[in-house]
Amino acid sequence: MARSKKKISYDRLVIEKISSEGAGITYVDDKVVFVDKTVPGDECSATVYQKRKNFNKAKVDELFVASEMRQDPFCQYYGTCGGCKLQHLKYEEQANYKQKSVYDAFERVAKVEVKEIFPILKCDKTQYYRNKMEYTFSNRRWLTQEEINYEGKINRQGLGLHVPGGFSKVVNLETCYLPDSVSNRIRNFTKAFCQENNMKFYDLLQQVGLMRNLVIRTTSTGEVMVLVIFFQNEEEKINLLMTELQEAFPEITSLNYIINGKKNDSYPELEVVNFAGKPFMIEVLGDYKFKIRPKSFFQTNSLQAKNLYDVVKSFADLNKEDIVYDLYSGVGSIGIYLSGECKKIVGIEIIDQAVEDAKENAALNKVENASFNLGDVTDLLNQEFIAQNGKPTVLVTDPPRAGMHPDVVKTILEAEVAKIVYVSCNPGTQARDINLLSEKYEVLKIQPVDMFPQTTHIENVAVLKLK
Ligand SMILES: C[S@@+](CC[C@H](N)C(=O)[O-])C[C@H]1O[C@@H](n2cnc3c(N)ncnc32)[C@H](O)[C@@H]1O
Predict the structure, then answer these.
(1) pLDDT > 90 fraction of the chain, expressed in percent and rounded
(2) Which is catalytic among the residues 75, 176, 194, 425?
(3) What domains sit in the chain, N to C, each tagged with a CATH number?
(4) Which of 25, 235, 298, 435 has the maximal Cβ count within 10 Å?
(5) Using CA atoms, how far apart are residues 99 and 128, in angstroms rounded to an integer?
(6) Mean pLDDT of the chain
(7) Residue 207 backbone zone (phi > 0: left; psi -120 to 50: alpha; other: beta)
């Protein structure tokens, strides 16, 4: 290793593992070194660009040996965009990496013995599988090195995805391999139209401009929902863009907008204006239909969502006497999917529109044994709620990435529900919660499901039984 005051370079590193952020990992003098865009088996020289007490982050200078796990990245924004961080890894190896990550989380964080760990359910479609994309407008888009070196004038307006680690850094996209092609066409059209019509792209630091976000959702049955988020209510310009989108894309079945004048991008409490088409779209999973409105969560990979719910159904192994709680129920999809197998479904969800959707979804599917309750699981799930709704015999929980609040875990422990099916998009927080639950529960089976090929994201289902 050659050291200078300014930089640290490594002459030869052998990459051993992949981090949860998708970087290669090796060790030098017991220090962890993360090397961007490398995979196990790579041998390279590298230079440190971030030095910390416990780790260094480095970039490859020269790749001497390319691992057999590698494949050529397919996207021009590889390495810049925060989207498909694992695209340099063969899909088979991505699946192995995810399987191992789940295994490690259970061993190191949950610290429990798992009776059966099933091989990850791979996704048949490894590109164009996402049914929802949230793009950000920026008047100071992120520039590539070639653009920085270019001496001519550069258009700084962009519409795309965030660069990792920077809320204000947006990479402009011309093509994206995650959504359906209609999403690419609508995004590119919107960007060009806004530029031609002097509709100012948002300045994420100064917080000025008109065009803020663009959300495009699709269903497996061909419906398309568009939600444009403006910073200000400039009626004339808004009408101009919305009318143009309506005319240019007859495929759009639900065209909506929101005015978000807040400092942050979140919009659960803001009013959605339905400009044209239906104020919702309908997705079909198996025998069930789901009404999804612009603010409601729905699994972003419809193809794998069905497989995921089939795992939940199999792990829950219900009978007609079971009372099933569906915590973090979204638009009621898991509860409704299980409703035919049990006595009763009781859902809890914090977004009012999602709860309304869940109730309508129950009606749409002629499900009469499900109720969906509005509220924060942390507050609503208590002894009184359980007394009113019946003691659950099976509890399905599918929290956001942060996992469950410790108070929720405490209530579940007190309720001594016989079986828990824990669905998670973050095995780290799932393992943390299961460690707390292990006071009274044993883990019978886990089934990782790859909902997000090319990314480091992992979905995992665990079934726990009261000891
Ligand atoms: C990962 S999604 C799962 C949704 C649903 N189970 C599905 O499969 O589509 C998590 C859901 O939890 C809701 N949520 C987040 N925090 C919550 C809380 N504290 N209480 C109740 N619901 C919450 C979100 O709005 C979202 O719908």
Answers:
(1) 88
(2) 425
(3) 2-65 (2.40.50.140), 92-126+301-466 (3.40.50.150), 132-285 (2.40.50.1070)
(4) 298
(5) 22
(6) 94
(7) left
